[in-house]
Amino acid sequence: MPFVRRSLLAFIVSGLSACSSIPPEKPAAPAVAEPSPALPPVPEAPETIRPEKAPPVTNPALRPSTFSALPGWKADDQSEAWSAFLSSCAALSKKAGWQAPCAQAQSLGRPSEQEARQFFETYFRPYQVVNPDGSSDGLVTGYYEPLLHGARKRGGRYQTPLHRAPDDMLTIDISSVFPELKGQQLRGRLVGNKVVAYPPRAELLQSKALAGTEILWVDDSVGAFFLQVQGSGRVQLADSGETVRVAYANQNGWPYKSIGRYLIDKGEMRLDQASMQGIKAWVAAHPAREQELLNVNPRYVFFKEEKISDPTVGPKGALGVPLTPQRSIAVDPQIIPLGAPVYLATTQPNSASASRHLMLAQDTGSAIKGAVRADYFFGFGDQAGNQAGKMKQRGAMWVLLPK
């Protein structure tokens, strides 16, 4: 490796604080599903978009499986995931292997439970997701779209700003130089003729670096922190009466650090107390230590405002399509292709009750790394937040790829 290339790579690796990615018990398999009626043939595609064969699966984290091995597959109503699947098709329909299943899905309209199940069994093959050590279970967490209360101008109880991305921030795609670092971006700013790391949270908020970038002001500083963790949310504006969405725009490039883990390590709470609700209660009991706690996480997220034309439609995930409550998950795209159906066998939040459903991999997250790792999207509002805050379960995953 030439010296210049090695030196630059060493700089990037040493500055990974400014880099980020572009969120149960093993159940016994049920009896083999009985055959269902065959689906109608796939409509003939025009020559210009004639379906191609799906590329071979060579990922060592994906182990060939069968639908009979999926626990609870026949008990799940896959038609409830249909709209989420069609959303994935909007992003995937021109990719190799996806034309035929997406064209057929469009032709089915609104399938019955049996038709939806037979569709997936006809056009897809399941692969169990396994960890590097060969194990097949991993962590399943939850996230949601919160509602905050705010105003366009600072005043009264509205004292916590939400910021847009500052003009001096640089976002560099490292993979354009180092393909082995695909999905990694370097964030920083110019100081003279050098690119330096963008400041961490504490420095940003203590300085005037973000002055003039405020887009909204909210009345809950801890809620604003968790809004950054979730990545998007809604704000009900007192001065205009409207509700707007604040969507993820960028972040300062520092790695996320868990404030729950900080409190556990300090002996301030037990592991079973370290939920979003538990952390909020701790801050309420220790208001003088709020900034100490929040500044443990050096990452700072910037937002952009979006109009809400349909309040029933969720925020867009990394795939660029709206998320569907309880049918969308965030995954590690280095392992699982974005847009793919994923069968998730886990348990309900803080419970041993089974939760086994067909999901769609439509989002990512900086903390969602590794093979068997998923972040379950619960939807919008307080009830969804209550479920998401308690979701720290074990689960197994099967990704469905076109035959």
Describe the structure.
This protein has 403 residues and is an alpha+beta fold. It has two domains: 61-142 and 315-402, Beta Barrel (Barwin-like endoglucanases); 161-306, Beta Barrel (Ribosomal Protein L25, Chain P). It is 23% helix and 27% strand. The protein is built from ten helices and 18 strands. It has helices spanning 3-14, 82-92, 99-108, 113-123, 201-206, 221-230, 259-265, 276-285, 290-294, 382-390, and strands at 19-21, 62-64, 124-129, 138-145, 147-151, 160-163, 170-173, 184-191, 194-197, 214-218, 233-237, 243-251, 301-306, 328-330, 341-347, 354-363, 373-380, 392-402. The strands form three sheets. It has a six-stranded mixed β-barrel with strand order 4-17-14-16-15-18. A six-stranded mixed sheet has the order 6-10-5-11-12-13, covered by helices on one side. A hairpin with a 6-residue loop joins strand 15 and strand 16 (354-363). The longest helix has 12 residues, at 3-14.
Largest sheet, strands/sense/barrel = 6 strands, mixed, barrel
Number of helices: 10
Structural class: alpha+beta
Summarize model confidence as the mean pLDDT. Answer: 86
CATH superfamily of the largest domain: RlpA-like domain
Task: Kindly identify the CATH topology of the largest domain.
Answer: Barwin-like endoglucanases
Q: Looking at the chains present, what oligomeric state does this protein adopt?
A: single chain
Structurally, the number of domains stands at: 2
Helix content: 10-25%
The rough form would be described as globular
Strand order of the largest sheet: 4-17-14-16-15-18
